[in-house]
Structure formats: structure tokens, C-alpha cells
Write a structure and sequence with these properties.
single chain, 168 residues, alpha+beta, four-stranded mixed sheet, three-stranded antiparallel sheet, 5 helices
Length: 168
């Protein structure tokens, strides 16, 4: 199972306006998720549920200043109880950070599900490190024992709806 399939199953087919009432499109999306721009469909789903406009602007995806990010962590452990991942492109090569909070969807390849986190702008810039090409990344570790990401624990959303409607 892939991140694209999981996002199609958990988010897009349930919340995207074009997929909700179209059983054929939903089934095709589940059969061939790699044919879709899943990240864009996630953004459109967030906007539909959250009630804000997708603007795909500079340093922000939505009119409220927030940005959508998808990620996954490695299915191979980096240590006995830890799996690492990163949220990419939170800072441009020119040094500009995303404008507002991050609406993060993280694929869990161990449990084959999606975790949701709303990271406020006051929190996440402190975690940014330099990634490939100077682009900013936020590294994290999934703890197998606690089955969560300790660094983001206080910002977990139990549902996609909560992620989409969260505000700073």
C-alpha cells in the first residue's frame, strides 16, 4: 500500500467534492492512485471541508495563510523503536518560510493509515533545518512504542475534519 493510495482512501474519496458522489471516480482513484495529483486533491479536500479558498500562492496554499504538506516516514526503523521522516519544502532556497500554519498529513506505512497534525506558525519554524538544495525541512521520528510522533503530539488532530477546520 502506498501513501497515494492511503490518502485517496482516507481523505480524497471521502471529502473531495468531485469524489464524494462519484462512485466510479472513487473506485478508479483507489485502483490507480498514482495517476492522480494526490497532493493537489488533498489541498482541494482541505479547502472544501475547511471553508477557505485554495489560492496556491507564494508561501501559502490557502487564503488563511496556511499550507498543506504530506509526508511519510520510513518503514525501516532508524533505531529499535523509531522511524524517521521529514516534512519538506517549508523554506525556499531563498530563505523564505511558509507564511502560516502547516496542515500536515503523514502516511504511516506500519499501520497503513494517515495521521493529521496542525502545526501553528508559532511552533514549526523553530524545527526547520536545511535540506537538499537549501530547502527547509522538518525532521521527525515516529515512536513505535507510543505509536505517535512525540515532537508533534500536542498538535495531533484525530480527524481530517479537525485538521481542515483548525485555526491559529
Amino acid at each position: 500500500m502506498s501513501k497515494a493510495y492511503c490518502l485517496m482512501r482516507d481523505v480524497i474519496k471521502n471529502f473531495h467534492p468531485d469524489f464524494i458522489d462519484n462512485q466510479e471516480l472513487s473506485l478508479f482513484g483507489l485502483l490507480r492512485p498514482e495517476l492522480f495529483n494526490v497532493e493537489r486533491l488533498v489541498e482541494e479536500s482541505l479547502a472544501a471541508v475547511g471553508g477557505y479558498t485554495l489560492i496556491d500562492g507564494e508561501h501559502q496554499d490557502f487564503c488563511d495563510g496556511s499550507d498543506s504538506k504530506t509526508s511519510s516516514f520510513s518503514p525501516n526503523p532508524s533505531s529499535a523503536n523509531s522511524h524517521t521522516g521529514s516534512i519538506k519544502n517549508v523554506r525556499t532556497a531563498g530563505g523564505n518560510l511558509k507564511a502560516g500554519p502547516l496542515r500536515v498529513l503523514i502516511y504511516n506505512p506500519l499501520e497503513l493509515k494517515t495521521h493529521f497534525y496542525f502545526l501553528p506558525r508559532s511552533f514549526w519554524p523553530l524545527l526547520v533545518s536545511k535540506g537538499y538544495g537549501g530547502l527547509g525541512i522538518i525532521n521527525y521520528s515516529y515512536n513505535l512504542r507510543s505509536q505517535d510522533i512525540p515532537r508533534f503530539r500536542n498538535f495531533k488532530c484525530n480527524t481530517f475534519e479537525k485538521l481542515a477546520t483548525s485555526k491559529e
